[in-house]
Each structure stands twice: as structure tokens, then as C-alpha cells.
Amino acid sequence: MGIVNRLTKRAKFIATKTTDDSNEIANVFMKNYVKDHDMPKTIVSDRDAKFTSKFWQATMPAMATQHNL
């Protein structure tokens, strides 16, 4: 997974498995990005099923984060 901060242009790359589901991706994101930084205001992702699942659609508003595809 690649995460880019659009303000600072810094990139962070996190190893994930292709078999990871949306819950595992969210855990990796929280443990590796949010713990070091703050929860982003906006997340831009591709249209992979991992990011279009009901889990992400329910989680983003709860965290006050806008999800753009």
C-alpha cells in the first residue's frame, strides 16, 4: 500500500498481502499511518473492492474522513 501526503509530498509504503481484506487493510493503515500522524481529512483510493466495501463506507464518516474514489 502506498500513502502519499499531498501537502508534504512524502510517501510511505507499507507491505500488504493481496489476500488481505478490508478489515486487515484498515488495521494496517491505523497501525502504520494514523499512529504516527493524525487521521487524514481526505482519503483518495482506487476502486478496489477493499476500499468500496460497506466496511469502509461505514468507517469513513465515523472518523470524519471524506473518501474519494
From TrEMBL:
Q: GO molecular function terms here? A: nucleic acid binding
Q: Where are the transmembrane segments?
A: none
Protein name, entry field: Integrase catalytic domain-containing protein
- The organism encoding this protein is Phytophthora megakarya
